[in-house]
Amino acid sequence: MNTRAEILVPGRTGEGPGLILSAPISFWGGVDPKSGRIADVRHPECGQGISGKVLFLPGTIGSSSASAVLMELVHAGHAPAALVLHEPDAILLLGLIVAREMGWETPVAVKLGREAFAAFNGKQVRVGVDGDIRISG
Fold first, then answer.
1. Which of 66, 41, 51 is nearest to 19 (CA)?
2. Catalytic positions, please?
3. pLDDT tens digits, 74-114
């Protein structure tokens, strides 16, 4: 299956297991930047690692600190392989933009309709720099 997504923030090609979150998440307090694990005990995927995964986000719960947490994830090597968002989140994506400005390699972030997420759950997914999303392997 190949799908074309809209590029929100350019970055490196990402490949990894697809992880579709079943609920929106706050990166501030919801994701541990030191481990790359979902830390919010109220989140259905609590305890799962996002590091190296193609992370499908049905939404985010806003916090102006989300960008800093994503930037910390990039710096610590615990960032997702790629971010696939249902709706752009300017504050979250700012973390990728600032990380790129600091010279760090960042994952690509794309926008894709939520209805397309299910096809990628648990599969090995590749998100290209051109926004091409496909099941690999």
1. 51
2. 63
3. 999 999 999 999 999 999 999 999 999 999 999 999 999 99
What is the C-alpha to C-alpha distance for residues 107 and 82, in angstroms, rounded to an integer?
A: 5
Total domains present in the chain: 1
Q: What angle is formed at CA 46 by the lines to CA 44 and CA 48, rounded to 5 degrees?
A: 115
Residues spanned by the domain of 23: 2-135
Cα-based distances in Å from 51 to 6, 34, 137: 22, 10, 19
68: phi then psi, degrees, rounded to nearest 5 = -65, -40
Identity (one letter) of the amino acid at 27? F
**CATH code (residue 72):** 3.50.30.10
Contact by Cβ (8 Å): 102, 68: no
Residue listed under structure tokens 């960008």: 67
